[in-house]
Amino acid sequence: MIHFDTDYMEGAHPEVIRRLTETNLEQTAGYGNDPYTARAKELIRKACGQPGAAVHFLVGGTQTNATVIDGLLAHHEGVLAAETAHINVHESGAIEATGHKVITLPQHEGKLRANEVKAYITDFYRDETYEHMVAPGMVYISHPTEYGTLYTLDELEDLSRVCREAHIPLYMDGARLGYGLASPGTNVTLKDIARLCDAFYIGGTKVGTLFGEAVVAPDPKRLPHFFPLIKQHGALLAKGRLLGIQFETLFTDGLYERLGAHAVRLALKLKQAFVQKGYRLHLDSPTNQQFVCLPNETIDRLAQEATFELWGPRGETETVVRFVTSWATREADVDTLISLL
Amino acid sequence: MIHFDTDYMEGAHPEVIRRLTETNLEQTAGYGNDPYTARAKELIRKACGQPGAAVHFLVGGTQTNATVIDGLLAHHEGVLAAETAHINVHESGAIEATGHKVITLPQHEGKLRANEVKAYITDFYRDETYEHMVAPGMVYISHPTEYGTLYTLDELEDLSRVCREAHIPLYMDGARLGYGLASPGTNVTLKDIARLCDAFYIGGTKVGTLFGEAVVAPDPKRLPHFFPLIKQHGALLAKGRLLGIQFETLFTDGLYERLGAHAVRLALKLKQAFVQKGYRLHLDSPTNQQFVCLPNETIDRLAQEATFELWGPRGETETVVRFVTSWATREADVDTLISLL
Amino acid sequence: MIHFDTDYMEGAHPEVIRRLTETNLEQTAGYGNDPYTARAKELIRKACGQPGAAVHFLVGGTQTNATVIDGLLAHHEGVLAAETAHINVHESGAIEATGHKVITLPQHEGKLRANEVKAYITDFYRDETYEHMVAPGMVYISHPTEYGTLYTLDELEDLSRVCREAHIPLYMDGARLGYGLASPGTNVTLKDIARLCDAFYIGGTKVGTLFGEAVVAPDPKRLPHFFPLIKQHGALLAKGRLLGIQFETLFTDGLYERLGAHAVRLALKLKQAFVQKGYRLHLDSPTNQQFVCLPNETIDRLAQEATFELWGPRGETETVVRFVTSWATREADVDTLISLL
Amino acid sequence: MIHFDTDYMEGAHPEVIRRLTETNLEQTAGYGNDPYTARAKELIRKACGQPGAAVHFLVGGTQTNATVIDGLLAHHEGVLAAETAHINVHESGAIEATGHKVITLPQHEGKLRANEVKAYITDFYRDETYEHMVAPGMVYISHPTEYGTLYTLDELEDLSRVCREAHIPLYMDGARLGYGLASPGTNVTLKDIARLCDAFYIGGTKVGTLFGEAVVAPDPKRLPHFFPLIKQHGALLAKGRLLGIQFETLFTDGLYERLGAHAVRLALKLKQAFVQKGYRLHLDSPTNQQFVCLPNETIDRLAQEATFELWGPRGETETVVRFVTSWATREADVDTLISLL
């Protein structure tokens, strides 16, 4: 059986494991007050081109989103997001549990449009009853999106400008950021993101570490008193150095880029095979998640030898299916899958 | 200037004021432990045909919705509501502030459809990832809706059945319930509502009292420990008897019905005038709120002599306008408005 | 039967009722956007000597405390309060329900001591683990306290200085403020309070109105976006003018002062009688709540003709009892009570 | 430099690392739906003597406490805990952030007393105003406590009985449970705990794993819908098998017991040395945390060669100091420390 369900089916890149093993019995202070964490932060600041940025390490994506969003919003504010946003759909209400509304806007292949964000904010303050409504206090985007799609630099510049004109922060969920940065077609760099977003996170869980997400706030004043907030949200790892060691490894010798490139190359190879064999893409994803419409009989046949996810309910004759590659995907498995198509 | 902005522009019905005045210097225990409150509860139980019902008095609508919904939901659950629901749009995030998501469904003239509620719940539990999503823990409807429309008895029966099959409560926001019950076309009675809903409130603020909403739970076990929850939500009035006195008055000698009938009669007179004069209704409301499309020049002309609300942003040539009557509306004002059309 | 249980057993001062009645059928905009509310705010600003102050009207004490405290605190902060503070004991966890810890300090006849507040804050930041603890983000005091006692001007100056040095706001719960200001021994004026506190409320519910509390923030920037927060907390009254009319009446022709003085005069008359008849005071309250130790047989005898509250559990031979007067207490009832002692 | 600051200064026991490494590139489903997690749960059920127990794996202690306590409490309830409880002092308000009050009782060397818990509950419901107060909805204890002390079996039986008579759950924070079970003097076994508590967690972070806590609910109905609650609290690890693998290792071949015994043996050796050299114990801890009063000059001298924590502020001439051993402590380091005393 070969697996294309998700990008978190394996542990960590062997180099990460090697570093965790070789430092295992060292003794350091807890909660991130260790030299590994300090070095990892420095490497990330450098990669982002933001020497003054605050960098915080948390364990997982949902807790990162809830903690950052809670930190960015005032009590009366909510977060604008696409209706397909992970925070709106698949986090069990973690944002609302912190008291904040997720205000949804239409999604376009998983993306928000700057003009629609702008129109929402403008209309909001034009409404005479706006003080009875939840104020749009920030914008959440994911990059890549839940559909694997990417913002172009122009789109990101536009969103950033709209947010800055409205004096609200732009936050990017980068759970799969490595796969976005490595996409051959993208013109968005990590430095662009750091320049255009007020906060974002660089996902480790899906891109090479056992777990861990690195929150970056280019202007640290955007996330004041963030340490106690991390603790309050139960997101503070006692052995914080485990996060430092893993991210130090990712950001050494270009490992993060290489892991991203590997997964994307295999995903695009798979996409090409689908197209060549005449299957219809559900949408054109340039990253490690591929969505394709398959006849139900093809699905049943493939399921004998491979695992993958149905995307939504099974249709009458065909169904959208998601195939995911990762840093750990073996090319042989991709080739096998292609041979089965 | 004549006013049709809202149904809470005046104080209370004179009989309510008279009773408040004549009991003013009596001394009673606080927090609803007084004979007026006891009698009011008994009158409401009787009107609902539910001798065993729990009745609780709160001050305003938003706090009532937040307290009841918080009381009905488990931590991991959210409330299903139409996208136009008051709790979704105009309560400043009060529901989310208690930690719960408002899960929106399409609205049909302000109403939910039972089959869409059923489909949502069915699809939810068919989704393999449902434990990562907010479980639909109850259904919220308003009757009349925010658009003045009413559920038919069949529609309400259907919604109730869907909820009971799914083992989740059906809750009705009755801020304007008196205007719904008094609508000539309705076949839904207060007893029907008490039979079909698991909790609902009978609104006083908009139908004759200074303030106050009466929450009814036909089966008291549905809202266990509700008294401390009312207190925790800041919704417990120290001089609770003020609520008792007002609702006792409303439910004596059919006052509540008469107040409702008055407002609806005038609203329908106004609607008929709009139609006769050739204006297009935005939708066909059988209650005290009327929505009509008016040319902008007509709006500007009327605004010289009357106040009312634009419903949404002003259009290029015409705009939807809301006119509201209440228990206190003077027929002469309606006639004046009609003469201006 | 004569009653000394609480200071919210009656309705409102007759002048308040008269004004509510005479304005009852006027039509005004809702939510406090009416001329009565505007005038009441102006009168309060003037009484406080703070022409630039923000004034907000809410319905009850618990909701006022929860809304203001939520508005003053950052997510990671808690509120310092005496262990006997109303917010710590008798609000059903309303503060915690907004996500904030009540951090308790020892009480001294219901009061906090400035030096103990200062020591707490100093020790807090000396603790190496302070970022794992709830930061003291504000100080809550009540004046009069839950024991009827009052801060002296020196004590209040000290608390204010400690707070300002620590850059945290001082908030006063003035549920019974009228009875504090009217105490013959006090040297604290409303202007002092407005000068020394960052937020406070002037209680109406217990001092002459049907309900209502007036929040004052001398510097409006201390409570930014407070209107949507009031709405979110379910504390926004639809017919906001009811609050405006009541407070306008209280602050016209010195009514608030007269109501306070009446209750305090009768309470002190009662206290003097207790002392003269040889009963031991539990503590020496200069306001409208009197606490006295009575032999159980005396309690049983009095209970035949008067109602009052046991303060804590009944003792073996004697018990602390609370007697409360109010703006509405009849001198004849006090004389009757005295004759029974 | 030798280190006795905390029990989370190293990574994981080498056997844990070995298992993580050797399974690293296997592909499994996420979120705990993997065979390692299933086996770990089975091993824990067996160790607890509770074949029907629910077992859930979370990442860290604060998130575990917040999630379990939120899951056990109704909205109007709070958690009873010793004033020194970790949830009251060192979790940045994580419990209050979920809306629940921590109700504190006196601590006796870190422990609650059953009779004091009982008295609190009895007095609570005797208070006529109890519905205005936060209901005691559960009891939190830690074992070992924050002071390293242990409940005796009698004490635990008494607490359990008090809770069961009051129909509220007893929850044990077992962050250092392994060190408690391994203490030579204890008569409390894991099976006793599972029999007497309604929920508890077996801590991994401080006893041999990189991270991870195993929540056990002997009666699964006590924590209904706990999976979405874990997700909502941001406590669900994507690669859940990492927790399964680690706990499977701990509960294989008695590793957990051996790790506990190692740390306790060295801690008691250290305690004996303190006593023999004439130092005064702050209290008599039978587990891996030792608290001793040291003259300040001794502290300064030791600090040249060892790290440890001052317990509270430095005194004028002597200060309480904490020394902690762990599964990873080298006997040579303990001997060195003893030689320095």
TrEMBL record, chains A, B, C, D:
Cofactors (names): pyridoxal 5'-phosphate
Alphabetized SUPFAM superfamilies for the sequence: PLP-dependent transferases
The keyword Lyase belongs to this UniProt entry's keyword annotation: yes
Entry GO MF terms: lyase activity
Superkingdom of origin organism: Bacteria
Sequence ranges assigned to domain Aromatic amino acid beta-eliminating lyase/threonine aldolase in this UniProt record: 6-237
Keyword entries, A-Z: Lyase, Pyridoxal phosphate
Gene Ontology BP, a term: amino acid metabolic process
Family named by the database record: Belongs to the threonine aldolase family.
The name this protein goes by in its record: Beta-eliminating lyase
